[in-house]
Amino acid sequence: MARKKIILFIVEGISDQTCLGLALSRLLTSNNIQFEITEGDITTRDDANSATIIKLLGAIIKKFLAGVFRPGDIQEVVHLVDTDGAFIPDTAVRQNTASGIFYAADCIYTNNIASLRARNAKKQQILNKLCSMSTILKNIPYSVYFFSCNLDHALHNENNLSYEEKMSKAVCFESRYANDLPGFISFLQNPVFAVTGDYSQSWAFIKIGTNSLKRYSNFHLFPPLINIP
């Protein structure tokens, strides 16, 4: 029997895989569902920019292959990203005396405004590049879907979570939906946060105003999920 083709999901952290991995594996049974974790946001790495991002993603995919698989074993690469409010205007980045970053409904608070604005500008350029791509490593189909302002916000309606809170909520989400696949699909299609329109239109929408801070996702547009009866 022919080996199943791989759908490789690239995600930022283990909590992302915990939320989605089991349900996706049980839904997309015609494929071998695999995850590669980047251990953080690849779009904000020091060596990441719009000129290097394709090479960096290629290295992540090659790491996954690592002599075990061939590029031809991969049916497609699906990259899941947080928007992190990257497309908001500079005026929506505001001063906060506390350390770290705090995501509010219509602005981001930080104790280093210049650094946050620079991060956003770089992430904008990289996401603009990624959402225009259709292949990676020459001919592997590639697509990128967003969770805004991050996956926790989209799936749990909470952002600014600690690592422990992320994992706790991820385990609860997995327990809720891994055995309720119709409920999982229905959740992703929830009009409260599922952006209307096609793939290109959803990306155009999230770039408007402060939309990249609000609770939105376009992952429901991933074609294999749309085509499930």
Strand content: 15-25%
How many runs of DSSP E, i.e. beta strands?
9
- SS element count, helices: 8
The average pLDDT score comes to 96
Terminal CA distance: 25 Å
The share of residues in helices is 25-40%
- Radius of gyration equals 17 Å
- Quick one: biggest sheet? 6 strands, mixed
SSE blueprint and pairings:
Layout (H helix, E strand, L loop, with lengths): L5 E6 L2 H14 L4 E6 L15 H13 L8 E9 L10 E3 L5 E3 L4 E3 L2 H18 L4 E2 L3 E9 L2 H6 L6 H15 L3 H8 L10 H8 L9 E2 L5 H4 L3
Parallel strand pairs: 1-2, 1-3, 3-8, 4-6
Antiparallel strand pairs: 5-6, 7-8, 8-9
Helix pairs in contact: 1-5
Summarize it:
It is built from 8 helices and 9 strands.
Describe the structure.
The chain has helices at 14-27, 53-65, 113-130, 151-156, 163-177, 181-188, 199-206, 223-226; strands at 6-11, 32-37, 74-82, 93-95, 101-103, 108-110, 135-136, 140-148, 216-217. Helix 1 (14-27) links the parallel strand 1 and strand 2 (32-37). The protein has one domain (6-88, 123-226). Strands 1, 2, 3, 7, 8 and 9 form a 6-stranded mixed sheet that branches. The protein is built from 8 helices and 9 strands. It is globular. The model has no long low-confidence stretch (mean pLDDT 96). It has 229 residues and is of the alpha/beta class.
What are the key terms here?
globular; 38% helix; alpha/beta; 8 helices
